[in-house]
């Protein structure tokens, strides 16, 4: 029986939800987020960006293509202490 606070809510069709849950179970997905790239599961849970890009690069190579080169990381510009280099 539904609690009184939910009595006024209409019942929803759960067919799609049940189908999604069944598919997740069949695929061995046991939580969210679950990240897949070209059928490869990339770790579990929250995935670092670099791991996702590595999986994408593997999928691109498997398709016979060369992934683009990654840009060089930004080099921080050293900052001078306040007043350094000021004219005396």
List strands and helices in order, with pairings.
Layout: H1 15-27, E1 36-37, E2 40-41, H2 49-62
Antiparallel strand pairs: 1-2
Q: What would a concise description of this structure say?
A:
With 88 residues, the chain is mainly alpha-helical.
Features:
2 strands; 5% strand; single chain; mainly alpha; 2 helices; two-stranded antiparallel ribbon
Any overview of this molecule?
- The chain is mainly alpha-helical and 88 residues long.
- It has two helices and two strands; from the N terminus they run αββα.
- The protein has helices at 15-27, 49-62; strands at 36-37, 40-41.
- It has a two-stranded antiparallel sheet with strand order 1-2.
- The chain is flat, with a radius of gyration of 25 Å.
- It starts with 14 loop residues before the first helix and ends in a 26-residue tail after the last helix.
- The model has no long low-confidence stretch (mean pLDDT 80).
Strand order of the largest sheet: 1-2
Bin the helical content: 25-40%
Rg estimate, integer Å: 25 Å
How large is the count of helical segments?
A: 2
